[in-house]
Amino acid sequence: xxxxxxxxxxxxxxxxxxxxxxxxxxxxxxxxxxxxxxxxxxxxxxxxxxxxxxxxxxxxxxxxxxxxxxxxxxxxxxxxxxxxxxxxxxxxxxxxxxxxxxxxxxxxxxxxxxxxxxxxxxxxxxxxxxxxxxxxxxxxxxxxxxxxxxxxxxxxxxxxxxxxxxxxxxxxxxxxxxxx
Length: 180
Known about the structure:
The protein has 4 helices and 8 strands. It is an alpha+beta fold. 20% of the residues are buried.
């Protein structure tokens, strides 16, 4: 907890070193990390979280990061190298809940989910597939609308949906940071 009563967490450094995470981060697609927290303070449970979007700009070879914290504040960051991203990831306290009165110690359950691409990337892919399949013609020249619609549905259901690639859970005890 920060001195103003916000609840902030830092993320585990080992997560970004996992093979599946590194592979996803360098795919050229936006990798989404959704962090959901549940803070239990006596009889009161408060839920919050944050979102981190990471995309490697393959042209500039930079990591572009957008953070939306639990206070709805959005920040855009750029990192020139993976080690800079890792350092930021594991040392920067990220706000998951806005200021409030807490007991000196609060139990916090954390769930981090990694999604393979953004909603916009999903929509773009679905539109491209729909256009491509709509232009498919049978040997006689007629459009195969019913077959195309079924093929599109199967492709979207099996591969284009944003299913989590990774989900991690852990618990921590938050303690109030003393004002300085």
